Fold these 4 entries.
Entry 1:
Amino acid sequence: MTGFLFELSFWLAAPVWLLMIFAPGWGPTARIAGSPWTVVPVLLVYLALAVAVFPELWTAVRSPDLDTFRDLTALADGAGAIWAQIIAWDLLIGQWMYREARRLGISALLMGPLLVLTILLSPFGLLVFLGLRAARSWRATREDLAAAVADGAT
């Protein structure tokens, strides 16, 4: 059962990822990606796995320590719970990136591969996106200032 739940956590998130990557301009995609409720099924999987190892989980979060965390992840339900938590948070990060990219006018052709990177290695994907977002915001601010100066000169 643990193996099934482990795999299920990804497959519950996959449709949202597929929409953001392959149908970013489709109307329902923006609505779906704008909802935090997309992670609830994955969090329910997390809860199912976490309940089975709650004493070990509580020990690991109450007093964080590498050996205690290693003990938790050595248990199938513990590793599965951590995996489901990662899948849920990665999906929320991906949804935020998708919405920010649309707000900033970042190309879907650029965001598709970046979202794939985020699925696989979310810290790398998020860092790249934050850099891209900062560059895009900086450029927009410069353009707004130039336009304001030009409007003031006329």
Note: The first helix runs from residue 2 to 22.
Entry 2:
Amino acid sequence: MTMDSTGDTAADTAGGGPPAPGSQWYDADAGPLVRPYAMTGGRTKPGPSNVRFDLIALVVVDDDPPGPAEEAVLGPEHRALLALCRAETQSVAELAADADLPVGVVRVLLGDLLESGFVRVSRPVPPAQLPDERILREVIDGLRAL
């Protein structure tokens, strides 16, 4: 026998009658629930090219995106991500937080938008290509000496 958070057992409320006083149904308060695999069509990889989206990669709406007719066939999550990108350039992590979606789902949806030509993604600079900290300190010291 199962017990809910108020101490009522499942048998107390399973009879089809009204719930016992003090019992609550939390899922109704949460609103509609859509599983992540339903939003991505069961896919876990972004697009056939399996492009990898780093959390700090910046996403911007393409300068010449497809027309409104092509956008109309997108799902609501795709359109929500596009709206967020139109407002300002955002990272993958920011998009996931603002859209209230798991990062894995956002990566798959961004893969769709990237392949359809709606967005562009600028990848972060790999650490190996950044200047050495020692060199930067020498430049700063040299500027201070001027």
Note: The first helix runs from residue 10 to 13.
Entry 3:
Amino acid sequence: MSQYEAAHQLGEQFHAFLAAGDWDGIRTLLTDDATWTLPGDNTISGTAEGADAVVARAKKIASYGLNFELLHILVSRENMALSLHNTARRGEVRLDEYLSTVCRLRDGRIASIETYLSDVPGMNAFFV
């Protein structure tokens, strides 16, 4: 399997585990010192440091009932990104955002994640 195929497969696994709520599965894809940085000023913003904190962040995001629609898996020479369309509704508040979740890889695992969003104000309003 080429490095590009391996990175693509890692992206597929990450999305599948996230959509299924398989937190142990996500943990197997992360380095122990993994981080996840999200923009905004809300309950999920900032940087989660360490694999357990990254898994906790994924759980928290999923607890809001998001639909994680995978649009594309993108690979570079050394890394991988997920292009997603996330939607959810909480009462009258609606989330409808496009994002790229950029994963830096180390030794075949995810070492850091940085998420880029199309609608940071909408994210702030939804994740209170």
Note: The chain has a mean pLDDT of 97.
Entry 4:
Amino acid sequence: MKVQGRMFIWLAVFILVMAIVYGVWSKEPAGTTALFLAFGLSIMIGFYLAFTARRVDAGAQDNQDADVADDAGELGFFSPHSWQPLSLGVGGALAFLGVIFGWWLLFFSAPIIMVGLFGWVFEYYRGESQNQ
């Protein structure tokens, strides 16, 4: 994680320099603001990764002499199948269409979003993939 933290901090420095150059050269507020916000985002991620790297064990990517096989193993649990993101996507699309065509469409999209959200949260508490 130390490598990733340094990468984001150097990216933040680069974006800051580019934001200053862009702001002085173009005098355009929207792009300058977007670049300064990108700087803030990069520095937050870089600080988080650098701060977390001190508290966890060093990974294989932090070792100069590590092989690819050193980082093998279980990386975490990932859901093999889930239909809930589809319902959240459909509900979200309907909600954004409600902004365009009329707020009345939100009455139809809100229940779809709620069903998808509750289904996703409680996915492993019921059904065939229930955990103990």
Note: The radius of gyration is 22 Å.
